[in-house]
Amino acid sequence: SIKFVKGFYMSYKDEFFPLEGTLFLEKCAALIKKERLHKKLRQQDICEMVNISLSTFKRIEKANPNVELGSFIKVLWYLNILDELSMILPVQNNQGDAQRVRLKKVSWEDF
Fold first, then answer.
1. pLDDT averaged over every residue in the chain
2. What is the C-alpha separation between 1 and 21, in angstroms, rounded?
3. Among candidates 29, 27, 9, which has minimal Cα distance to 18?
């Protein structure tokens, strides 16, 4: 059984998983199912195309957080959803944004 504790879900094994992650997976799972049905594909069709098991795909559509990331990405890619998700991610500008910061040394007298 799963219980809600301070902004994240805890399972009977006390495995940490954040609430935001659960909500994101649920949205992705709904999008995957919607796109699969729109394209009139069976779950088994996708499994055969991306070489994953049917049980893994069912866990993806149920938003199970324990699915291997590679399997999840392959399904998103096959359904052409991966580009949609990557477009909402922030763009990283690697040209000089990272700056070195010098921190003041702290000693016991500071406390």
1. 83
2. 18
3. 9
